[in-house]
Amino acid sequence: MVDRDTKSRLDAEFSPSRLAPNFPEILEECAERSRKAKSTSGFATYSYGPHPAESVDHFPAPEPGAPLQVFVHGGHWQQTSKDEASFSALDFVKQGYGFAAVGYGLAPGRTLPEMCDAVWRALCWIRDNAEKLGTRPDTVHASGSSAGAHLLAMALCTDRRTPGKRPPLASACLLSGTYELEPIRHTYVNDALGLDAATARAYSPLHALPCRTPRLLLARGEFETGEYIRQQKEFGAAARQAGNETTELVVPGANHFDLVLGLGNPANPLGNRVLTAMATR
Prior knowledge:
Layout lengths: L3 H10 L9 H15 L6 E4 L7 E5 L8 E5 L16 H6 L3 E5 L9 H17 L11 E6 L1 H10 L14 E5 L14 H4 L3 H6 L13 E8 L2 H16 L4 E10 L13 H11 L2
Parallel strand pairs: 3-4, 3-5, 5-6, 6-7, 7-8
Antiparallel strand pairs: 1-2, 2-4
GO molecular function, one term: hydrolase activity
Organism: Amycolatopsis albidoflavus
Protein name: Alpha/beta hydrolase
């Protein structure tokens, strides 16, 4: 166990809301945008597994065969859900693309290994059902924020069906992620997760590289804690060393929570990068 001072420091480092005083309003905006998106025609929810949370909210592209953006929500693996994660759906549809938000269940009801497995299976289901979703298996892109970035990164580093052969995604964007879980073990976040040292290492993307995608974007807001900044830099360097084509982006004026709002906006530095990747064949 770490000493009390170290625990207090780590608790603060994994409390990004202290640098985002308006985060309740941001979360409400995400929820409201998601509600609006789900009131549109074409919206549907599909189950990809036996657990009640294992479902995907899908918004089809205007034309069949268009690329699809998949989003994995954050929330310290224990808060929010896919129900508030479709805030970018209408932005992507406006640009001619499909969108899907993934549910995976939360701690303490689910363990971290179960969540990681769920996201991996969700991506496999989406690829296997690409035609049903109006896209193609080779034009599935994905993004994840915070805990969602961690879960997406683990899914990218896992390919149990055809190891090392077919990338599961055309591109991926990881936003403000945690890629080394050992520090998490010593914070309040672990009260729900219950990670031990072995599980923290086994489910740290930093130790599972390379990511199986041809293009990897790591993005964070200007206003992040030092730990999120450090983890992005270390993961980016390790991903490049492992052979991943990796780009890093810091979005001016953005924080840990409002960063995601620009995901599908071509006028936003983040959205511009994500949409450009989707348009690249």
